[in-house]
Amino acid sequence: MTAPVRRRVRLAVAALCLLWLVLGLANVARGLGAVGPDYWRWAFAHQSYSDLLTLYSPRYLGGAHPVPYLQDRIEYPPVLGLVLWLPSFLPGGPATYLLASAIFLAGCLGLALWALARLPDAKPWWLAATPALGYYAFLNWDLLPIALIACSLLALRRGRVAGSGALAALGTAAKLFPAALVPAAFGALAAAGPRPFGRWAITAAALLLAINLPLALFAFDGWSWFFSFNAARGAENSVWHALGGPSGRWLDLASLGPVALVGLGALLGAWRCARRGGDGARAVRLGTALVLVTWIALNKVWSPQYALYGFLAGALVAAPGWLFAALTVVSIADYHLEFEVRARDWAPWFVETLVKPGELLRTGLWLALAAWSGAALWRELERPAPGQ
């Protein structure tokens, strides 16, 4: 592909990305007139749902600004609690809040794409060109941890070990999914020696402690709500809902057990790759994608915007176009199914005929991407070491 052709392709992808963001914001903005206690009912019925407006309604609609965790229980980790709270001080009510949040999230997406474009062999168009952006970019704040994952991987690639650990910690303090970085990063850095491993681990741990410890000490009930809220949740929208079980601790084991096993495989794979002189940073990217996709696919709770983490993973492993197309279609259908069933008050025929089969199909396709990611990591291990 010649340079002019590459330039045109990049411009086309950028135009698509901007189009999806504009359409997505326009769709969410339809609900501004319905903001209030029953916003979610209107949003489900009109296929225009966003957590940004749902969480705004009970907290900030009347001009209040309750301090996260100290005065307000929030079901997210501290960094996201801060991001949720700060735009509430802007004048202009829910419209300004939505616009400011959307600009911030669009900036996060731009940062993620910038980082992906600088990672060798990555395919940023997996994240930039999917129409799923129009559905999910402004549904929640997931583009923030996605940007932190991508930037952490880029920092590691460039040898900025402490910076990579700090970015991974910030991502984990926003949502837990960036912890998918940890197994492969530990493996590759342990092979590189105690000094880089210690710098990454100590930086990440110190920053996580600095963010969480003050809240845990002075506002334990508010800070711990994230953990108790998620521990009490059952099988929601996930493959486990489609299968009708298990529940309780067995559900936690069924959903997290495979993730732990895959994480161990990512750790060992990255360790072996770096140990034999291979591209340890690339092995970390592949291992991160493997853990991330397995996690979202088998988690006991599925939120439709988790698809964005999957598209990030597809970009990291340079997965093929056919898988991109299939996952885009199923991600769009998933949005409509999961919100339409709520608008229909979980009508049994709709659940059994459409929702549960959709959950199974969606899980199967994301696991196909996980398998592709695992195969890519295996191929990296099979490459001849430098000098052989």
Structural commentary:
The chain is built from 18 helices and no strands. The protein has 388 residues and is mainly alpha-helical. Helix 3 packs across helix 5, helix 10 runs antiparallel to helix 15 and helix 11 crosses helix 12. The protein has one domain.
List the helices and strands and how they pair.
Layout: H1 3-29, H2 39-45, H3 51-60, H4 78-85, H5 93-117, H6 125-128, H7 132-136, H8 143-157, H9 161-172, H10 181-192, H11 194-218, H12 220-231, H13 239-243, H14 248-275, H15 280-298, H16 307-317, H17 321-343, H18 348-382
Helix pairs in contact: 2-17, 3-5, 5-8, 8-9, 9-11, 10-11, 10-14, 10-15, 11-12, 14-15, 14-18, 15-16, 15-18, 16-18, 17-18
Give the radius of gyration: 21 Å
Q: Helix proportion of residues, in percent?
A: over 70%
Report strand %.
Answer: under 5%
Strand and helix order: HHHHHHHHHHHHHHHHHH
Query: Care to count the β-strands?
Result: 0
Alpha-carbon distance between the termini? 31 Å
Number of domains: 1
Biggest sheet overview: none
Secondary structure tally, helices: 18
User: What structural class is derived from the secondary structure elements?
Assistant: mainly alpha
Overall geometric form: globular
Mean pLDDT, all residues: 94
- Low-confidence segments, given as residue ranges, are none
